[in-house]
Amino acid sequence: xxxxxxxxxxxxxxxLQKQSFHQDVCVKDGIRPERNTGVExxxxxxxxxxxxxxIFLRCRSVLNRIRGASVAGTLHPKWPTLSEHPSSPSxxxxxxxxxxxxxxxxxxxxxxxxxxxxxxxxxxxxEPRGPSPQLDVISEDAMxxxxxxxxxxxxxxxxxxxxxxxxxxxLLDNRPGQDDQPPPAEAPERSxxxxxxxxxxxxxxxxxxxxxxxxxxxxxxxxDRLSLPQSASSSSSKQSWLLRLFESKxxxxxxxxxxLYKSKEPGVQAYIGNRLFSFPDGEVDFYLPQLLNxxxxxxxxVGDSIRPYLIHRCRGSITFSLLSAWLxxxxxxxxxxxxxxxxxxxxxxxxxxxxxxxxxxxxxDPPRSVPPSVSDSPVSSPAHRRCHRRHNSNNVDAGPAPDxxxxxxxxxxxxxxxxxxxxxxxxxxxxxPSASLRRTGSNPKVEAMHEEPERLRPxxxxxxxxxxxxxxxATLPTKEQKxxxxxxxxxxxxxxxxxxxxxxxxxxxxxxCRLPPTQGxxxxxxxxxxxxxxxxxxxxxxxxxxxxxxxxxxxxIHSSRSEESLDSGATANANSIITSExxxxxxxxVPNYDNDDxxxxxxxxxxxQVEMEGQTSSSDNISQFSxxxxxxxxxxxxxxxxxxxxxxxxxxxxxxxxxxxxxxxEDPSAVALKEPWEEKVRRIREASPYGHLPNWKLQSVIVKxxxxxxxxxxxxxxxxxxxxxxxxxxxxxxxxxxxxxxxSSDSGMIEPVLNAVSLHQVKxxxxxxxxxxxxxxxxxxxxxxxxxxxxxxxxxxxxxxxICYLLQVKDRHNGNILLxxxxxxxxxxxxxxxxxSPKNLGFExxxxxxxxxxxxxxxxxxxxxxxxxxxxxLQGLIAARKHMEKVLQIVEIMQxxxxxxxxxxxxxxxxxxxxxxxxxxxxxLQVLVEQLVDGSMRSITTKLYDSFQYVTNxxx
Amino acid sequence: xxxxxxxxxxxxxxSSSKKPLKEKVVLMYDEIFAKEDPAKNNPRFWDELFLMKxxxxxxxxxxxxxxxxxxxxxxxxxxxxxxxxVQALGEEHQxxxxxxLQTLCALFRGVHQKNKSASGFDIINxxxxxxxxxxxxxxLMESLDSLLCGxxxxxxxSLCLKLLLCLVxxxxxxxxxxxxxxxxxxxxxxxxxxxxxxxxxxGQHGYDAVVLLAxxxxxxxxxxxxxxxxxxxxxxDEPTLDGMGMVVHQALTEYNRQYKDKEEEHQGGFFSAxxxxxxxxxxxxxxxxxxxxxxxxxLLALYEAVHLNRNFITVLAQSHPEIDIVPAPPxxxxxxxxxxxxxxxxxxxxxxxxxxxxxxxxxxxxLLITFLKYASIVMQDTKDEHRLNSARLCLxxxxxxxxxxxxxxxLHDDNMNFRVTLHRMPMRxxxxxxxxxxxxxxxxxxxxxxxxxxxxxHMMKDFPFDLYLRCVQIIHKLLCxxxxxxxxxxxxxxxxxxALINLLKFLMSNETSLLSKHNIFHLALLIVNLFNMFxxxxxxxxxxxxxxxxxxxxxxxxxxxxxxxxxxxLRVSTNAGQWKExxxxxxxxxxxxxxxxxxxxxKIESYAAVNHISQLSxxxxxxxxxxxxxxxxxxxxxGLDQFERYSEQPKEAAFFxxxxxxxxLNVRKNVSLNTLSQDVLLKEFSxxx
Lengths: 956, 689
Description:
heterodimer; A: mainly alpha; Serine Threonine Protein Phosphatase 5, Tetratricopeptide repeat; Phosphatidylinositol 3-kinase Catalytic Subunit, Chain A, Domain 5; six-stranded antiparallel β-sheet; three-stranded antiparallel β-sheet; 41 helices; B: mainly alpha; two-stranded antiparallel sheet; 33 helices; disordered N terminus
């Protein structure tokens, strides 16, 4: 497909070129015809005549117009070079740092003999672009926007600026390529901003009419062309080259962000601002912190160019709105309080939180700024919402409800609750003889008047309550009290669930339905109270539009359970052998209670129950007399068992190696984190009233209150970037970036690493050396399991060693290094990176933490695995070096306006850059790695720091 | 309590103001009790009547003084008074509503006091007239219902509840109160629930509502279909259930606090503490007695909720900070129309209030913990009849809890560890337990502790046999659950074993006196079977292999007790007599224990002989035990892990009847005090109007 399209393009162009070559006298290019004929020769045959005429005609008209507007002769000398750029191979975008690459690649181009290939390469990425219906739709939207959206000026200005530049650039481009493709050839189909380039669409004229600068008012294209030579003759070459780059398929978000940050050209900024629309949401989301930090801290032009995109995305998604609002708040907090209040970031945050960015509910409420891009996820329609609202209340309407206006107040209780109540009333009405008295006051008809909750509010409240819990916990003295309090707070919070709230760290769309209260655990921290909670969610198609799941009372699971009597359970027990890792409180002996029908039948047919109870006139359970043990014994052949067997079974049951940790009131999280995730999921699922639902999932999250997670977020981004670089370069380094949600400058959430406990906990609980622990957990040296775990350990060690070196991660005590069940180590807590270190005591001078215990696990200094470790590090460093810009860029942008300790001093970026050692050869790098490893291993300070931590904080 | 003072003040005032000059309202009452229709001459008579301040005493005494003959004559007028009272409830003017409510109160009470012996139908006839009774009561209940559910004055709601309490308790035996038949037909159950589900109204009326509900549930419980039972059993609305739990929790907490204060007061010396505590149980001042009795009502409510409503079990474990949840001030906070998550939690006041009192000494608590603490206090002394009843009820509630799978699940939940400070009776042979260092454990440990504590402390002449039976059954039920779910509880089982063995010892030494009253063989059988559980199924639930050795050690150590028991039951079962059957069961149950004793005793003796040790250390005995398991064969006994499920009827029916009667009396007494204090009410409404 790709190649065919490319071919069509090529032939298209070729024809156009031919035509224009004959027609346009002005353009006399000595080089191109030859080249083109070459192309032609290659592509003959793939030429289909059908669709091209339209395009051709369009181009013709453009050309005519251009010609009519008097072509300045001054341009002539430029043509050769200009035409060369677009057709030149787009210089390898990977190395495209905005600063240097243009010049260098420019020269490369001119000297390159392979223009033909280059041009075909470039053009092949696009499809022939006729006046597609999609474009029309979009432009309509844009018109609407222009008419209706007077309040918000910024996006329009941005748009206009953008169009201007694009037209400028385009025309420069087109000029030589009158014979060339119609403008947006390179862009992927879905990239919406491209419509702006189409000179035929009326919308552009409209926009132009609005333009403030007078001299640009006339129909744009010809005039623009006129104005160009003066204003941009020098930069034009650069720009056109840039445009080529921008439109190449290799132009990714990373580059966009980079140009946005570095380019001082408002036009480029505006273009990129628009271009953002064409990237997949997910890719842009990764750079959201950068975008927002630029928005907050950089000059207006940058802000204006991003703003439309931000607003648009906020409109489309609650998640995006909230994430942006949180980040904006966090990044604005470094400003002085007085400026902060009036800063752009704060204003945007207010706008987002004010919920004005709701997707339009009626046609009378036109979208204000930016047309929704085609590529965007479907915006929730009001119809959907209404549906949902009805859903909440539908069961309720049954009752006759001549209710007073007071209802709203009396029954502010939520829909589902009242709904339940009404249900039980309904059953009563039919079941009891005395239900003749109709309840008026409590007949829950409230829903009809119940306003739909604000869009962002539930989630914000949810998050707020989580942080309030954290704050309250912090005041309690002991871990035990904290944990108890946490449990009770969570069970209170449960009353509000399920609701339209979600966990931002999760991959899939869902609604939170329950927080199993007893699973909440306070983590180890001296004065703050971070805690981990497990969250039961129900996945759904779209969390914004799918109906919120109906609340199931806690007791539902109970009711299904208590149905089966004790002795039936006992017999089941006798038959089934229960494995020893069976934990307390689990119910695997209970037969099929997650079978839907059975579980629900009891309560849903409440009426039956009522009748039954009515008949017996007492709701006592029918008592089951157990056969007295003696009498039955007498009648039967006695069974004998050996006391020794009982004793042996008991010790066997207890003998299995302690895969689980013991409960320790000082470290309540150890047990919770050690429990294998699958087991935990199974256990919680069994105990949950929602567990039977197929879309039930368990998530977990660490809530941190009183900690600034912005640095963590930065570290996450860098880790993520390095991870993808290593993946791309196929270096088997293993790291585990865990997601961070910054919610303000002193609170946030962290995605917990599953199945992992800290080295400190491992040591304290097992009282073993790391190697012995590996042997205990995975088996002896030669087993497959051990070898796999060892390899995992080495790969992760290498990954994190590099990370620690590059980012200068400090505070590496064993409480901050996790070990997962597969043997990977995972570093957590990036509170001290780059330019900051704890208390600057001068500890931890080594490049990274490599203790002899680590080396032991790798099989000693001479082992193959240790050599593999060093090799991995070298490969990793080489790969990282290759993509240094991508990493640097993340850090650099975040430095803007930031007061984070990791940016302390002036040399942060420089230092980081130096650690990539761009100047060294690979051999030199290898030496460097050897040195680093050696130094770290020998480092006395590592040991010192560990013992310092042991003495001060009791971390082993 | 200030109520007493208030009452005194009130009484003085009314009595002083009454005599010299007849109030207008009194004159009007007189008119009613004349034979004429009072409205005949004065068409606005009824309107005016309800504008007058009610003179309850006069009205009641008037009703009381009517002779049988007169009743016929003035019945029309009384019917009419009742009718107009009901009508007045719908009035806009709240003074009228208040007066009507109080008049109704007086009517119900006066009529019943007079006609203690009269049948319920006569009373209904006298108040409302047979033909209209149904309609009148329907109107009355509907009015009360809408008053309770409306957003009117809180004191008005309170008065409505008082009226209902008054109505429910006019007879000693609630089941003889025929008027309640109409309350059954015209249910106010939903209104009660609504009060409980809303946090602010719960704070003010929760107690009355819960007591009322508990009483209504007990109306003709065993004879007919009581819709309140049916409805209560299927409530699944969490806020409501939580609300109910909260009310109970508060009442019990209050009691515990009072007890603790009292205890600390008397902390002077050990002896004085002992005497005064014992003393305070007997010569408790009115205040204390009052609180004990009202708590019976609350306890009954807790029982009914646990027993009838399986959903309520979750509420027991619903933990919340142990704070006196002050009734939320009627600020807009509790119920705002647009709630954050689209739902209103019952405890919005707790959760949404960031200014939650944060006393680090306050432990997180839940209803069950509070209940256990309460039970530990109540069980300390069972000589007082009220306390005995309370203790019995506590054990019944625990029985219900122990039978419930879900409750067992959270009792044994490793993630729910609590420190439960139980109150222990100071005794001669042991020091008062120095609490504070109780480890944080799953809740079931606290239950077991409580049981052990009870077993240890009540071996007395006036043997509470029934309570012991329940106690052992509760332990058995918990063990069954642990065995079934293979939960290895880290509990010091040894304490339980020695307590049970001591109990057996006590039973035997008091055989003659006990046997005259109780079937002690049944209790002995239960205890022996507990040991059999440990012996045959210990591998499924004992925490360590050592604990199994310790069990054998304990049995062998105390073999004398089992030997004596065996002798006794053998003796009884060979003689013909009423206990023959029961005793023979125990003989059979003892088979494994005897096997153990007979197996290990010689081994230990020979070990001692071989090693020339006169007194073996524990470790040495354990060593012998460990090395000789394999030659011991045990008999597998059936049905050890089965138990008779609790059922209220027929066994407990008499107890509950009696209990409800005493609660009724008590509530009636309190209500009569309260309804009189109407000053506040009148003040409130006079300013409004």
